[in-house]
What does this fold into?
Amino acid sequence: MRFLLIMVAALGLFSCSGNMAKLEDKNTINGGPDLISTYATICNEYKSTDKEFYSCGSGYSSDLDLARNKAVLQAKTNIADKISSTVLKNEKESIVETTKEGVNKKFDSNSSSQVFETTLNKYQIIYDKSFYESGKYRSFVIIKYTIDS
It folds into this structure.
């Protein structure tokens, strides 16, 4: 019985890492469906918990370093949005009544998310891979940020 449990656990680990292993030898992304598939494979690999946040970032540029820097910045922004952001919402409703046209209603709703100055020190880059796509570079980065308690 113990052997069966160990085998099931091992198969689960191999199946999770199997998708990422498929990308190790891959160097190019060919078109939209391939980009979506690659993005899903990389960005869905790690799941955040209450104490550890994972974030995936993607950057696209004709310069490899710039593509990677964009990916890191996007991943850091996603984590900052999770740990230190506010949502602002404004609503306004106007009702105008005339005898000819009846009642006219107008409703406006605006919402925005703001990330305030946040310190993200001690994050770790746990995945970093770049691909060649349509004459430019596409970089993916996954970072891990641990909340100290």
